[in-house]
Each structure stands twice: as structure tokens, then as C-alpha cells.
Amino acid sequence: MIGQLVGSRSFQRLASNFGAQIFNQCVTIGVQILLVPVLLHAWGKEHYGTWLLLAAIPTYLTFSDFGFTFIAKNEMTMKVASGDRSGALTIYQSVFMLLNMVVIMVISLAVLLVFSIRIGGLFNLGDVDEQTAKMVLLILITTVIFYQYFLLFSGGMRSEGKPAEETSWNALGRLCEGIATGMTALLGGDLIAAAIAILINRLVFNAFLFLRLRGLASYLVLGWKHASRDEIKRLFNPSVSYMFVSIAQALMIQGPVIVLGALAPVTQVVIFSTSRTLARLGTSASNILNFSVIPEYSRIYGLKEMERFLHFIKIHFALTIAGAIAYVIIMETFGGIVMDYWTNDIVKAPQPFFTLLVLSVFAEMVWSALFTPLSAVNQHISVSYSFATLSCIGIVLCYVLVQYFSLTGTAVALMSVHWGMIFVTAYALLQRYPRRPQTVMTQDSPSENIAR
């Protein structure tokens, strides 16, 4: 039925993307769960805790490319779909040049900060010495930096119509990284050895993906001959705005925990974190769908098939609404039972807190689906900044409400942000894509749209 609505070829691509995203999620969750007992057994609680602390710091460098690789994926896919391979090459080399400059700056800054600051004075390193901590941190930072090149190569894969393979490479790399970390620890390796194993794994996968891309698209050569400063300027605003989406999402996840930790008993932090983990299963499920359809949105838009693009939005939104309603029913019916079994009756989610939390996730699922077509064609700028603004307001509201309504106050604050985003994204879609698709297509090109 869905295959007939979207077209057989589109349905085949969507099915492949969906399967790859499920594999990616299974790998992510599986590695996170299985590495805990392995590393605890091999290193002990103190060493493992120090590893978690040091590994968490480089994750903030995922914002170091200002979202350029994500925007490049979308732009390259639209360019290739429209037959403009030279334009795709210009974007590819422009982002490559940008990454080279970022690498030099970030590594220089990282070395300066790591060797000028006493890490043990800021964090409790347990029995790990200062020099070991510095080396581990530098190696992990280098790994994260090289991951940005992997994302650029992934953009080339997506533009050549291989989004499922792109996702599978990413998942396989994460799986091998987890295996390398666990095996290194079990064989007696220390934190430095584990960090080196992760770096080697990243370099190997970068090389494999680069060679695979060269086989698929020989025109996508690394260099700066076709790089363009104007292209970088054009990509800058949508790239930075997309980075703000990631920052706002992190703020909405960690902000309430910090507020509760400052104003409420620690037991309420445990209740909130555990309940949120269970409730956000809906977000994870909707993200699988959203990430699966992004490449298809970019491709259809690049082909200038606007009527089909709008039809695709309707199908995507209908599936999301159906899934979101089913999610609410399941959570309201079985959420408490699952919570009791999962925590061995230790954590109990009170009402109306849990229901409001579920409704906030429902709203997040809905607006994320509305945001997906905008981000897939790099027309998300105003929505991204709106989300960042609402997130800041939401945390302030959370701080106020927690003092009066405790846990329920956090859920109300989250609901306010996510339900507000439904109106923001819906308005942006209606403004951008009115009922007459022919008018939209003659209005401007994808390249012109990105500047808005």
C-alpha cells in the first residue's frame, strides 16, 4: 500500500534506509549496554569512571564543523539528483578545505589547553595519573576530528544514492570500535591502549569508506581546486543553525537533570532520568523513520518534483501521527508495568508527571517529523533558531516550576517547548510550501533556498 503511494523505487530505497537505521540503533544501544560489564570487569569501577569522564569531553567537538558535513550531505544529494555533479564537487572540496582549517585550529587549541590545564585539578581522576589522562584526552579528540572526514565521505555516498550503505558503514564502524575497546581492556590494555585502538579503528574505516567512494564516484576527488569561498559563505548560516538544534536538544536532555540536582532531592533526579529514558523510546523510534526519509526528501527536491515532495510529506506525517498515538496508548497502558519490572520496583514514576512526560515526547515526535523535510533541503534556519530560543526559555521555566511542582514542573516545561515547536514547524512548512507546488518550484532553486 505505502509502496504504491510513494513509488516502487522510492519504497525500496526507504525500506533499505529503514533497515539500516534499525541496525544502526541496535548497534548503538547494544555497544552501550554490553561495554559496561566488560570494562567494569577489566578496569574496575574507578578506572571505568575515569574513562567515561575523559570520553565525554571530546563529544562536544562533534559541533566543531558547525554542522557543515550534514548540510553538505543534503546539498550534494540535491545537486547530483539534478545532474549537477560539478556543483557537488564544489561543495565536497569546499567542506574539505573548511575541515582542514578546523582540524589545524582545534588540534592546536586542544594541545594548548590540555597541557596548560591540570585535569586532575578539575576532575577526580581516581588512580589515573595526570599524564595518562592528558594522552587519552588528546587521542580521543584526534579520533573525533577524523570522524568529521568520515561524515564528509558519507555525504558523497548519500549523494550517489547509497544512504543505506552510508548508515551501515557508520554502524559497523561503531560496532568495531566497541569490540576494539572491549578486547583491548580484556587483554590487559590500559586507557591509553584503548584510546589508540579506537583511533586506529577510525582511521581504518575512514580509509575503507574513502576507497569505496572513489569506486562509486571517481569525480569526487579530494583537493581545493574546485573549492569556493562563496560556497562556504552560502553554507554557513544553515550549518550553524543546524548546530544550534543539536545544542538545544542537549540542553533539553541535560538541563532538567541539572535543575533537579540543584533544587530537589537526588531521588527525584533518579526518577526523572529513568522515566525519561523509558519515555524517549518513542523519540528513538520516530528518529529511525525521520533519518530514513531524509535522503529521499533531498533527492526528490533535487529532481524538482515538488508535487511528489509534498505528497511525501503527507505520508511521512500520517505515519508519524499513527505511531505517536500508538506510543501514547502503549506507554499509558504498560509504562508503569515496564518501569516496575525494569527497576525491580525500585523506581516509581508518579502521576501526573509520567503522563505529561509521555505527552511531551508525543509532541517531540510530531514536530521532529515536520522539521525533517525542512532540514533535508536546508531550509530549517528560522526553525532551528526558534528551537534554541524556546529551549533556553524552557529551562528557565523548568527552574521556576520545579520549586512549586517538583517533578511535574519539569514535565510541564518540556511540554511547553515541544508543543510550541509543533506550531513553529507547522507554520514554517505552510509558509514554505503553500498549496500550489508549481509556484514554489518556479520561485527559486535549491541553491537559492539555502540562503533563507
Defining traits:
17 helices; disordered C terminus; 452 residues; mainly alpha; 2 domains; 0% strand; 84% helix
Model description:
- The protein is mostly helical.
- The protein folds into 2 domains: 8-227, no CATH class; 236-449, no CATH class.
- It contains 17 helices and no strands.
- The protein has helices at 2-6, 8-56, 68-81, 85-116, 119-122, 130-159, 163-186, 191-216, 229-263, 266-279, 281-302, 306-342, 353-376, 381-405, 407-432, 437-443, 446-449.
- Mean pLDDT is 85; it is low at 437-452.
For the record, the count of structural domains works out to 2
Number of strands: 0
Q: What can be said about the biggest beta sheet?
A: none
- How many helices? The count is 17
In short:
With 452 residues, the chain is mainly alpha-helical. The chain is 84% helix and 0% strand.
